[in-house]
Amino acid sequence: MAIGRNLSAVERRGAYEMLLAPSEHGVLPYGAITGVARHYMCHRATISRLCSRARLSVDNGAPVADIAARIQGNSGAKRKRTADEIEQAIKAVPHDDRQTLRCLDVHSGIMNTTIFRHMK
């Protein structure tokens, strides 16, 4: 299982519909949440939260279950440099000073981990 993965809107809708299919009178059979979690390669708690939020929204009178992600908009760390800026900074360093990552780090002013991640 890929723990820590965020589901897209389409995947969330599909997961909710997969949960609705085997349910009888609003009760899920044993193992349904785990099965859906395996199908979408996420943690079962993710699917359980999705199901709980959907039930809560319907119980509160919403015509359609609310399964939208709460992570929206500008989330996550902001990029400090683009890939082109990193390449230009590396090319600006003389060849003799590019022999090791540590030297490249010092002379370019870009962190070692950023250079390594860019090389991937």
Percent range for helical residues?
40-55%
The biggest sheet, with number of strands, parallel, antiparallel or mixed sense and barrel status, is: none
Oligomer state of the chains in this structure: single chain
* Tally of DSSP helical segments: 6
Order of helices and strands: HHHHHH
| Structural class computed from helices and strand pairing | mainly alpha
List low-confidence stretches. none
The number of distinct structural domains comes to: 2
Shape estimate:
elongated
Q: How many runs of DSSP E, i.e. beta strands?
A: 0
Output the radius of gyration. Answer: 23 Å
The percentage of residues in β strands lies in under 5%
Describe this structure in words.
It contains 6 helices and no strands. It has 120 residues and is mainly alpha-helical. It folds into 2 domains: 1-75, no CATH class; 83-119. It is elongated, with a radius of gyration of 23 Å. The two termini are 24 Å apart.
Topology:
Layout (H helix, E strand, L loop, with lengths): L8 H12 L11 H8 L4 H16 L23 H10 L8 H8 L3 H8 L1
Helix pairs in contact: 1-3, 2-3
